[in-house]
Amino acid sequence: MAPKDLDMKKNFSEKETNPLHNLEEWEDDVLERYPEPGQAAKSKEEYRNYDKPARDTVKEFYRLNHKYQTWDFVQAKRKEFLQFNRKEMPVWAAMEYLNTLVDDSDPDIELDQLQHLLQTAEAIRQDGHPDWFVLTGFIHDMGKVLCLFGEPQWAVVGDTFPVGCKHSDKIVYPEFFDANPDSKDQRYNSTYGIYTPGCGLRNVTMSWGHDEYLYQITKDYLPEPALYMIRYHSFYAQHREHAYEHLMDDHDREMFTWVKKFNPYDLYSKNPVPPRVKDLRPYYEDLIANYLPKTVKL
Ligand SMILES: [Fe+2]
Ligand SMILES: [Fe+2]
User: Fold this and answer.
1) Quick one: which ligand is closest to 262's CA?
2) b/e per residue, 110-121, with b = 16+ CB within 10 A?
3) Quick one: which ligand is closest to 231's CA?
4) Helices 277-291 and 91-98: crossing angle, nearest 10°?
5) Cα of 136 to ligand 2 centre, how many Å?
6) 33-87: per-residue pLDDT in tens?
7) 188, 164 in Cβ contact below 8 A?
8) Are 237 and 170 in contact (CB under 8 A)?
9) How far is the CA of 117 from the centre of ligand 2 (A)?
10) Which ligand minimizes its atom distance to the CA of 137?
11) Residues near ligand 2 ion, CB 5 Å cutoff
């Protein structure tokens, strides 16, 4: 193993691996930044000063994310996980496997992963969207199984952003990028970095997490809008802030209308009434069978 790989295999302490009490702390925080239309949004100042115990853990989570998600880190993770040599199982079983992700969230108020996914998908179905859109809602967070492989939370969830070029100050907590070595590296710290104007996102490497991982698992099977939704659903700096327009081409712009369409279902479909998994399973098993292979490799 090259010394660089060894370095990337750096073992993070428990505190650095799991800064959040649970993954929902990140999602709840996103919801505060992007509240449902009609609900009063907090100003940037209010957001940052808002006194809430979860805020400190989310801040620490982003500190680690922004510090460690370098170009080299992402390359090492891609090399490690895009071999898909960990597990092979049917999609429904993979979703149940994801559901074994237990954290210390309050079981009375928090929905588990499968419930979040079913609620997202059911909201899409109720609005009469095509079945592949419903399926996308159902599987979009399957990549979070990375957590079950011992990956740090900040390398699984969190807003994603391009690596290999300047970090936008529209990304949440941009000041934490100061500790990211890429921000001092002349190859990577200009507006375009290693990219060219309008090169298209297919040529851009994103920070590593559950979005890219699931995209790589499903890329041969789903319609392109579905793949964009999966791959860029946490890319808030673009689909909400339009900070990376300069790297996109016209095709990306067209496809991002789908990413934008998807986002409200992800953020705003949480409902305190848990869906009846048993009743819904046959419908989703059919959907899976229509688009995806019998088993997927993780
Ligand atoms: Fe997600
Ligand atoms: Fe989600």
Assistant:
1) 2
2) bbbbbbbbbbbb
3) 1
4) 130
5) 10
6) 999 887 766 666 666 665 666 688 999 999 999 999 999 999 999 999 999 999 9
7) yes
8) yes
9) 7
10) 2
11) 141, 266
